[in-house]
Amino acid sequence: MITTIKSTKINTLQAIRAFAAIGVMLFHGADMINDRLGYLFLNNIFMAGFSGVDVFFVLSGFIILYTSSLANYDVASFLKRRFIRIYPIYWLVTIFLVVAFVFSPSPDQAYKGDIWVILGSLTLLPQAHTIVGVAWTLSYEVVFYLVFAFTYFKKPIFLLFAFIAWISAILLFYFLQIKTDIFIVNALMHPVILNFAFGCVVAFLYKKYPNAANFKWFFWVGALLFISLWALFYQLRTSNAEAFTSDMARVYLFGLPAAILIFGALYLPVLVPKLLVHLGDASYAIYLIHGTVLSVLIKLVLKFNLAALFSHFMGAMALFAATLFIGSCFYRFIEQPLLKWLNTVTNKVQYQLA
User: Fold this and answer.
1) Low-confidence ranges of the chain (pLDDT < 50)
2) Is residue 61 situated within a structural domain?
3) What does the CA dihedral 95, 102, 24, 231 come to, rounded to 10 degrees?
4) Cα–Cα distance between 298 and 315 in angstroms, integer?
């Protein structure tokens, strides 16, 4: 059986995905430029750029539930599609970083030579160290996919029951401040998982009210909340390093506003610039390699004694623009052809077995 599904790409969501990837890049990049070039980009206004991860998780919850409700997936076909989408390109980046470490070892990254860390990274098991810095978020994605696959495709109501039990356990661990010595257990009880549930709620509401034009105002409410809470986070964190450091903070500061914003964006009658749509398409590639690209670019700047040319606003912007360009090229010339080839091969195999 070959699973088919009509195109469900929503350009407003692609734009949000692009901004989320850029936010994460600016969060990491500003820190790297400050540490290595001594320039604090825009007074560290992107210290909340990590919230792009929360946006990605809400988007993931929405997209997985929404597209699955439109397609004739079963557990195997769903997991195959998710595997192809996440793992192959991620493995390329992981293997590249391991090989780079072998030829240029760094004492503060010795874990990259640990076989168990490498294997754990390749499988995306939740663990303390990962070869690719952002891979910890992919571990949560994989856990969500597995829970979704083995509940929703048995009976959709099972997903609701699973989330009720899961969220109850997370809240219990959080409010009672329960911590174990088992890293995977602590990871599975992290409040950030609530963002997937928010996304699923958005998908449910959108399926129920697909033509409610007035719901576009949710976008502006969500955007205002997101920006206001970003400003609050920045103001308080700047004066107090302990402000909003709890695991739950990112959920109510950014996850919930992101869900409101995304819900409203589904109803926005706007023409999204092609550049934003492209960056949204390339967001996974940008997300995976932005840290490595920025690190290499900064090393080149230092190697050729060009720090003075890049230790200011325009220099930093040039580094960020180059990172986005390289990430887009990585998507266009590596990720996209690889995905196309893998989908073609697996569909042929599936057809021959049917």
Assistant:
1) 1-7, 351-354
2) yes
3) 150
4) 11
**Is 109 a domain residue?**
yes
* Rounded Cα–Cα distance for residues 283 and 58 (Å): 15
- How far lies 346's CA from each of 8, 335, 353, in Å? 21, 16, 11
340 lies in which domain range?
11-237+246-353
Q: Note the pLDDT of residue 189.
A: 97
Tokens 């168990």 — which residue?
A: 116
Tokens of 116: 């168990």
Give the integer Cα–Cα distance in Å for 191 and 170. 6
**Residues whose CB is less than 8 angstroms from the CB of residue 162 and which lie 6 or more positions away in sequence, other chains included:** 147, 151
In this predicted structure, what is the pLDDT of residue 71?
Answer: 85
The CA distance from 226 to 238, in Å, is 18
Do 188 and 126 touch, CB atoms closer than 8 A?
yes
Q: At CB < 8 A and 24+ separation, what contacts does 95-98 make?
A: 96/292, 97/131, 97/132, 97/292, 98/131
Residue 5 domain-assigned (yes or no)? no
Query: What pLDDT score does 330 carry?
Result: 98
Q: Quote the pLDDT of residue 346.
A: 83
Q: Quick check: is 76 in a domain?
A: yes
Our CA dihedral for 288, 291, 295, 296, rounded to 10 degrees, sits at 20
Per-residue confidence (pLDDT) for residue 223, from 0 to 100: 98
Question: What total of structural domains would you count in the chain?
Answer: 1
- pLDDT at residue number 7: 42
CA–CA gap between residue 6 and residue 27 (Å, rounded): 35
